[in-house]
Amino acid sequence: MSAAPSGPPPAAFNAGLGETGYVEGQNVAIESRSAEGSYDRLPALAADLVGRKVDMVVTVGGIDSARAAKAATATIPIVFLVGTDPVEDGLVASLARPGENLTGISLLIGQLYAKRLELVSELVPQAGVIAMLVDPKTPATERNIKYVQEAASAKGLRLFILRASTATEIDAAFAVLAEQKAGALIVSATPFLDTRREQLLELTARHAVPAIYAFASLTVIYRELCIYAGKILEGAKPADLPVQQPTKFELIINLKTAKALGLTVPQSLLARADEVIE
Length: 278
Hints:
It is a single chain. The chain is of the alpha/beta class and 278 residues long. The chain folds into 2 domains: 10-109 and 217-240, Response regulator (Rossmann fold); 110-213, 3-Layer(aba) Sandwich (Rossmann fold). It is 40% helix and 13% strand. The chain contains 11 helices and 9 strands. It has helices at residues 10-18, 42-51, 63-72, 113-123, 141-155, 167-180, 191-194, 197-206, 219-233, 255-260, 267-272, and strands at residues 57-59, 78-82, 102-106, 129-134, 158-163, 184-187, 211-212, 252-254, 275-277. Strands 5-4-6-7 form a 4-stranded parallel beta sheet, with helices on both faces. A 3-stranded parallel beta sheet has the order 1-2-3, with helices on both faces. A two-stranded parallel sheet has the order 8-9. Helix 2 crosses helix 3 (63-72), helix 4 packs across helix 5 (141-155) and helix 6 packs parallel to helix 8. It starts with 9 loop residues before the first helix and ends with a strand.
């Protein structure tokens, strides 16, 4: 079940299940539901899945998907993918022992925003204004803005917030970005914006603005999520499976794009990069 207009790529989903011996159409059936970005539809979608007596609910697209599933059932196992702290948000009792019928993966998205601001300001040290593109419909948006605002203030930078929850609003946001003469852009990690990657890449190139994104790809994350789902299908209890968090963070620099923008990437950044695209 997803809050976003599109859910996990089927290949990534099936790869994770396949590693635990489950193959769609052979020994497992998958019912997909998407709120298409309308968060108020999530409770009904969760209730529908529970009414079909599914063996498990896998939620992606943020905290609201997980909350809707939790509200719908206290017995059916739920495996979630969230970017926030599931303990702080009331999903689980603790990361080590979630309790009840939920477990999953937390991506620590909020805690990393300050680091992204640091990286992009190091890439464009002359930028006095940094823009941040957010989806106002995403529940964690204001919290994430606060993380970046605090980091920007500490560096003496001005943070300008661009809000967009449709493709048309993204186009309009980039027009405002140009008017504000922002030196760089931080793209918020949200279900909707993650599905608009091609549009964002085209606009950042057209407006010649350096940008930093949260993910190069969600494929690996979805695979890990479905491996966890497979373990539960095999008999493991969610309450006994710790909530997973990232253990490795990678910095990927697109040197080809940087050159096209006329940017010289500092050696200090290149030395820390896990991958450089040339």
